[in-house]
Amino acid sequence: MTDETIYVTRPFLPPLDELLPSLERIWSTRELTNGAAFHREFEEALAKYLRVPYVSLFTNATVALVTALQCLRITGEVITTPYSFVATGHSLLWNGIEPVFADIDPHTLTLDPARVEAAITPRTTAIMPVHVYGRPADTVGLQRIADTYGLRIIYDAAHGFGAKYDGRSLADYGDLSVLSFHATKVFNTFEGGAIISRDAQTKQRIDYLKNFGFAGETTVVASGINGKMSEFQAALGLLQLRYIDECIRRRSEVAKRYDVAFADVAGIKVLGALNRYVPNFSYYPIFVGRDYPIERDALYEKLSETGIHGRRYFYPLISDFPMYRGRPSAAKAGLPVAHQVADSVICLPIYPELSEADQSRVINCVRRAGA
Ligand code: T4K
User: Fold this and answer.
1) Residue 225: which CATH number?
2) Backbone φ and ψ of 173, nearest 5°
3) Which pLDDT tens digit goes with each residue over 26-60?
4) How confident is residue 370, by pLDDT bands cut at 50, 70 and 90?
5) Ligand 1 cavity residues, CB under 6 Å
6) Among candidate residues 213, 241, 269, the one where a domain is terminated
7) CATH of the domain at 340
8) Residue 363: which domain range?
């Protein structure tokens, strides 16, 4: 047994020698960025792999979220979830949009359509749900509300790469969808992200917006940002696509072992399978309940002392950070489910190269921590 630190995730990297031909091409062409050959190739390859209409690559998902909101000219109030990474809320603040928090559903762990409906005001223009841990939001319920009230939906699908719901990629829902390719994600290009759009005109606007608004050498049509993915990232992404199915398969093995190991542990709840859903096993959250002998934070500390870096994704809630907590919708009383979930979660290590021996250390710690 090893005593080395076990991290919540370790990025998968393809063999370096397989990347070298791409690097040589970049070195010889001197085309490093601004939508060159690898960028175009990767966009096409991704659209094909994910079976989505249009892909616009970005430097990361946060800039992609900011741009997605600008693309649809979203203003006023947007109803969003407190149970996410801060980037979800920050993308609204960066656009001068008022985030309105609604409580989550205990099964999807993201926006509960009934709570969304109750939060709508004349200033509401859009909904921003998250496919938490790469599991689907209530896409049907949320779309019904959006259609009834004339609202747009931008999905934060940062965790959703490779997951499918009802035979469609999770990135294929809503008006726009945003993926992350950050180092800690199922599919990584070091940093990276993408917006998935439905028609050529929308993709064109996104592509202007991510390139300062340039529509030609001397024409600027919008106050765009610099959100472009570099050629290095795109070349790496193309190579990563060869390995993604095997990565997800290996993650599924890890998840299966956890499922078996925790099935009889009183007070530890895990997320089960869902109908019509093909998971990507991006995270392995456990929820520590009252029947477990010690509290969530005590288990978290025990794991840390043993060299196991679990993460409390997502604790604290976005609504509890200083730039959000003064808002009426951030009050604890209105978000009971989100608080209960955030106070009980720990995400355990899961990644393709996690060894069985290391996973056993994690399992033993969780099984024995309360004993
Ligand atoms: N929306 C949602 C729902 C998101 O979860 C995120 C990002 C976004 C939007 C925004 O996407 P990006 O703009 O990032 O594309 C991490 C990530 O930085 C962040 O991307 C991610 N969500 C969030 C859930 O987790 P930290 O602060 O937990 O990362 P860090 O540095 O503590 O890394 C966690 C573990 O991963 C480390 O213990 C070790 C390992 N690791 C990490 C890195 C960066 C490595 O082994 N190698 C590495 O290079 O935020």
Assistant:
1) 3.40.640.10
2) -115, 160
3) 999 999 999 999 999 999 999 999 999 999 999 99
4) low
5) 7-11, 60-62, 84-85, 87-88, 130, 156, 158-159, 180, 182-184, 193, 309, 311, 313
6) 241
7) 3.90.1150.10
8) 244-369
Each residue of 190-243: pLDDT tens digit? 999 999 999 999 999 999 999 999 999 999 999 999 999 999 999 999 999 999
Could you give the number of structural domains in the chain? 2
Pairwise CA distance, residues 131 & 239, whole Å: 26
Q: Whose CA is nearest to atom 46 of ligand 1?
A: 10
Q: Determine contact, residues 81/127, Cβ cutoff 8 Å.
A: no
Identify the sign of the CA torsion 226, 232, 235, 240: negative
In a shared domain, residues 349 and 210: no
pLDDT score at 1: 42
108 shares its domain with 208: yes
CA pair distance 271, 70, nearest whole angstrom: 35
pTM as predicted: 0.97
CA 193 to ligand 1: nearest atom: 15
Task: State the average pLDDT over residues 170-182.
Answer: 98
Distance CA 175, CA 64 (A): 14
Whether pLDDT at 273 is above 70: yes
Distance CA(180)–CA(263), nearest Å, equals: 31
Q: Are 194 and 55 in contact (CB under 8 A)?
A: yes
